[in-house]
């Protein structure tokens, strides 16, 4: 049985999430519901939960700062948030979960199932280190992304990713050291978070690291030559935007 705590400053959202979680009572029980981070910290110390549902935007102390103040995070976290793209990107690069308000039932079910998987893998500490690093680090080259591959979670520096290739329902990451990591997500699942960190989708089948562009060869859409001498086609409809973003040669 998963023992969970809700930390949410909005009474309506807190009550609604509690009612939604009641449908999962065979697997999960809510042992406390807190209206602010201070009470949340006390409740976590007292109850030692397996999982917390944590609102990001709260007065005086946000959810991220609350977690930093705890230090030893030995529980799972599912963040809840209104639309905040910077925070969402940081969460996604850490392979952690979030729910957009108002919370959708299917999204909640998926988040709980993924939480169960993470409990088996026991990688939470490294995932939170990645999250805090990415939140504090404005330089895309110094950020890290957590990739849930077939053999577990790999933590990879953004600067070490050369390109990402579509591989059916999977995405294949090509690293500078010639290693590859296959992730059970599509290229589209990574496009937004990578685009915010100096990557660009040049084709339906490829996202590239703009810092590793060696040469652009003009043509209908053109061809890009990467630092490892890989040549990739640029889709005609993406050509103009790519040229604007391309490093000066």
Give a nutshell description of this structure.
The chain is an alpha/beta fold and 249 residues long. The protein has helices spanning 11-21, 37-47, 63-70, 85-93, 105-121, 124-136, 187-195, 239-245; strands at residues 2-7, 28-34, 51-55, 76-81, 97-100, 144-149, 152-157, 161-167, 170-175, 180-183, 199-203, 206-209, 213-217, 223-226, 231-233.
Write up this protein:
The chain has 249 residues and is of the alpha/beta class. It has 2 domains: 133 residues, Rossmann fold; 98 residues, OB fold (Dihydrolipoamide Acetyltransferase, E2P) (Beta Barrel). The chain has 8 helices and 15 strands. The chain has a 5-stranded parallel beta sheet with strand order 2-1-3-4-5, with helices on both faces. The protein has a 5-stranded antiparallel beta sheet with strand order 10-9-8-12-11. A hairpin with a 5-residue loop joins strand 13 and strand 14. InterPro entries: CheY-like_superfamily, LytR-like, LytTR_DNA-bd_dom, Sig_transdc_resp-reg_receiver. GO terms for molecular function: DNA binding; phosphorelay response regulator activity. Keywords: DNA-binding, Phosphoprotein.
What layout of secondary structure does this protein have?
Blueprint: E1 2-7, H1 11-21, E2 28-34, H2 37-47, E3 51-55, H3 63-70, E4 76-81, H4 85-93, E5 97-100, H5 105-121, H6 124-136, E6 144-149, E7 152-157, E8 161-167, E9 170-175, E10 180-183, H7 187-195, E11 199-203, E12 206-209, E13 213-217, E14 223-226, E15 231-233, H8 239-245
Parallel strand pairs: 1-2, 1-3, 3-4, 4-5
Antiparallel strand pairs: 6-7, 8-9, 8-12, 9-10, 11-12, 13-14, 14-15
Helix pairs in contact: 4-6
Organism: Paraflavitalea soli
Protein name: DNA-binding response regulator
Domain HTH LytTR-type: 145-248
């Amino acid at each position: 049985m998963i023992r969970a705590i809700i930390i949410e400053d909005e009474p309506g959202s807190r009550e609604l999430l509690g009612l939604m979680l009641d449908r999962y009572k065979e697997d999960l029980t809510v042992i406390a519901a807190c209206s602010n981070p201070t009470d949340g910290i006390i409740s976590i110390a007292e109850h030692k939960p397996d999982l917390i549902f944590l609102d990001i935007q709260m007065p005086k102390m946000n959810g991220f700062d609350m977690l930093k103040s705890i230090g030893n995070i030995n529980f799972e976290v599912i963040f809840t948030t209104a639309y905040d793209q910077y925070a969402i990107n940081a969460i996604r690069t850490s392979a952690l979960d979030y729910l957009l308000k108002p919370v959708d039932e299917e999204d909640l079910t998926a988040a709980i199932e993924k939480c169960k998987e993470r409990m088996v893998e026991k990688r939470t500490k490294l995932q939170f280190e990645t999250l805090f690093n990415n939140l504090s680090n404005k330089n895309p080259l110094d950020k890290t992304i957590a990739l849930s591959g077939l053999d577990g979670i790999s933590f990879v520096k953004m600067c070490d990713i050369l390109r990402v290739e579509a591989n059916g329902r999977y995405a294949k990451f090509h690293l500078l050291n010639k290693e590859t990591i296959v992730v059970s997500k599509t290229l589209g699942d990574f496009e937004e978070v990578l685009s915010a960190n100096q990557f660009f989708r040049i084709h339906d089948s490829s996202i590239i690291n703009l810092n590793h562009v060696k040469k652009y060869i003009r043509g209908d859409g053109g061809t890009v030559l990467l630092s490892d001498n890989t040549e990739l086609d640029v889709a005609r409809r993406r050509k103009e935007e790519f040229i604007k973003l391309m490093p000066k040669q």
